Amino acid sequence: MSEKTLSLIKPDAVERNLIGKIIQIFEDNGLVVEEMKKVHIDLEFAKNFYSTHSKKPFYNDLCNYICSGPLVALVLRGDNAIQINRDLMGSTNPKEAKSGTIRNLYALSIDKNSVHGSDSHQNAQIEIDLFFNIK
Ligand code: ADP
Ligand code: MG
């Protein structure tokens, strides 16, 4: 069944001019770019977006990083889009990411890991609504 997920091309990847290469991977794997915008979020937005991680030791660094420069927010659509996007991203730690995944190819470190992807239907809806005010 066709579904939607939120993807972020994070500041480290935008800064290195990797927007096109990352979107190419999505399109080559059957995901359709339904919405897209480049945006520089502020700290308040970042803290809300990552609120599920608020008790983690890396929370403050994560929030400061994600608003350190522009990112690209995408709504991706396709059959099984949430899981397919997660598979294309690879593991959170790029050292553990499978060959050919976005994080294997482009991530610099566990914190500067180039992409975000929603991890469930519920979070996809919440995150799409946060960035695009749509369901
Ligand atoms: P994912 O992005 O793969 O869904 P998580 O939701 O667990 O990973 O974490 C959100 C983000 O927080 C990660 O993408 C990464 O940028 C950062 N992060 C996760 N774990 C760590 C860690 N141990 N040290 C530093 N940053 C981390
Ligand atoms: Mg996550």
Structural topology:
Blueprint: E1 2-9, H1 11-15, H2 19-28, E2 32-39, H3 43-49, H4 59-66, E3 71-79, H5 81-89, H6 102-106, E4 115-117, H7 121-132
The structure holds adenosine-5'-diphosphate and magnesium ion.
Structural class by SSE content: alpha+beta
Number of helices: 7
- Uncertain runs are none
Q: What is the name of the CATH topology?
A: Alpha-Beta Plaits
CATH class: Alpha Beta
Give the distinct bound molecules.
Answer: adenosine-5'-diphosphate, magnesium ion
Q: How widely separated are the two ends?
A: 17 Å
Overall radius of gyration: 14 Å
Q: Helicity range of the residues?
A: 40-55%
Question: What this model shows, in words?
Answer:
The protein is of the alpha+beta class and 135 residues long. The chain has a single domain (2-132), classed as Nucleoside diphosphate kinase-like domain (Alpha-Beta Plaits, 2-Layer Sandwich), CATH 3.30.70.141. Helix content is 41%, strand content 21%. The protein has seven helices and four strands. A four-stranded antiparallel β-sheet has the order 2-3-1-4, with helices on both faces. The two termini are 17 Å apart. The chain binds adenosine-5'-diphosphate and magnesium ion. Adenosine-5'-diphosphate (ADP) is lined by residues 53, 58, 62, 92, 110-111, 113, 116, 119.
